[in-house]
Amino acid sequence: MFSIIAAIGKNNELGKNGGLVFNIKEDMKFFKDTTTGHKVVMGYRTWKSLPKKLPDRENFVVSYEEVKEADHTITNLDNFIDQNKDTDEEIFIIGGGMVYTAFLDHAKNLYLTEIDATVPDADTFFPEFDKSNYNKTIIKKGSENGLTYTFAKYIKK
Ligand SMILES: NC(=O)c1ccc[n+]([C@@H]2O[C@H](COP(=O)([O-])OP(=O)(O)OC[C@H]3O[C@@H](n4cnc5c(N)ncnc54)[C@H](OP(=O)(O)O)[C@@H]3O)[C@@H](O)[C@H]2O)c1
Question: Domains of the chain by range and CATH?
Answer without folding.
Answer: 2-156 (3.40.430.10)
